[in-house]
Amino acid sequence: MLQLVVAVATVTLVLVTGIEGILGLGPAIFLTAAALAAFPAGRARDRFGWVPVLAGGFLSGIAGCLVTALGCSVASAPLVIVGFALIGASGGTVQLTRTAAADIYPSERRARGISYVLLGALAGASLGPLLWRPLFAGREFTLDGLVVPWLVAAGISAVGLLVAVSIHPDPRRAATAHSLLQHPSAAPAPAAPLREILRRPGVPTAMLAAFASFGVMVAVMNLSGYVAVGHHHRQADIFTIISAHIAGMYALVLGVGELIDRVGRRHALVAGLVVMGASTLGLVWFASVFWMSVSLFGLGLGWNLSYVAAAAELTDYAAPAERGKLVGFSDLLAGLFGASLALLGGLAYSRLGVGALAIGATAFVAAPALWIALVRRAPEPLLAEA
């Protein structure tokens, strides 16, 4: 479903409004809704567990895809916007599954555990083109032609709902079990206020890396389809580029998780941001489908390194009862940053061309990479044993 959103969200809103200058608005709606959903979803996890939270996310996805399909059918911009918002809320909620993985694994294997769960997205990256390319092959993008794909996406979300409600036991129970194994006689520590958690040494650095990697990745990813159309490629080719990007995000995820646990998260944060910067800069010169796919693959791989390291680092600095709140707040700010970059990038592309988009994206990851590389190392996490 992510591939469909990335490939056609920009075009869908332009078609329904007839205004090309707002091409970044579609992704921005999706990303803003995802960001706004992440924090309450994280807090709900701390209170109710993962299964009801993930199920609610997929229900939102089903509703959003159906509303978007209706909006395309009747050419209604308000319906499409509402649909995008519901789909975004679904994405922001389901993305928290990496924190569920962190709950399952102890600290020394946490990055590896997150990478195991992210393998699910690799299957989506592989199967996506097999589903979407036939639906768009030989067709121009029209509102009527987008109705069926959005209905199919609703069906995919329904499958996700069935998977979510079958999870047993709830991963939140594992986090409590790890804590009890480490401290069998200790009472569970109460959750600290969010402002106190954010002041812990190491948390700001991990959050900065999460902001930069997620914001740049989603902004460039969501605009890449429109960039490909601007290079006069066929609409079906967009799915090849997006599939390469998602493969970069997840194809090497098992090796990446083990690498992060071995070399350390700080080195992984910097390396991932550098790879992202080199990949986005390449878009200045890359125009073919093959080389755009290579560039987007590198963008996904760099995100994988930096974002998995940041997620593992954040969960180390939070007690089991605090993780949903901290990661949800991080996702809230990262999503809003990504939405802002999508709007800014769309405007830069429409006014100045792909060079402005590529150079700006590179700057947004290069600066944090330099800062993290030079800043004093934080002390060891106090809560790593949880």
Word description of this protein:
By secondary structure, the protein is an all-alpha fold. It has a single domain, classed as MFS general substrate transporter like domains (Growth Hormone, Chain: A, Up-down Bundle), CATH 1.20.1250. The chain is built from 16 helices and no strands. α12 packs across α13. The radius of gyration is 20 Å and the shape is globular. The two termini are 34 Å apart.
SSE layout and pairing:
Elements (H helix, E strand, L loop, with lengths): L1 H16 L7 H24 L1 H25 L2 H18 L2 H8 L5 H27 L6 H23 L5 H12 L11 H5 L4 H28 L6 H14 L2 H11 L1 H18 L6 H28 L6 H30 L1 H21 L12
Helix pairs in contact: 1-4, 1-7, 1-10, 1-11, 2-3, 2-4, 2-15, 3-4, 3-7, 5-6, 5-8, 5-14, 6-11, 6-12, 6-14, 10-11, 10-13, 10-14, 10-15, 10-16, 11-14, 12-13, 12-14, 13-14, 13-16, 15-16
Briefly say what this structure is.
The chain has 386 residues and is mostly helical.
Based on CA inertia axes, which overall geometry fits? globular
Count of separate DSSP helical elements: 16
Proportion in β-strands: under 5%
Mean pLDDT, to the nearest integer, reads 80
| Secondary structure: number of strands | 0
- Name given to the CATH architecture: Up-down Bundle
Major sheet description = none
Topology-level CATH name? Growth Hormone, Chain: A
**What is the count of distinct domains?**
1
For this structure, what is the CATH homologous superfamily?
MFS general substrate transporter like domains
Could you tell me how far the N terminus lies from the C terminus, measured between alpha carbons in angstroms? 34 Å
The helix content is: over 70%
* Rg (C-alpha, Å): 20 Å
Runs in which pLDDT lies below 50 for 5 or more consecutive residues are: 183-187, 382-386
CATH C-level category: Mainly Alpha
Order of helices and strands: HHHHHHHHHHHHHHHH
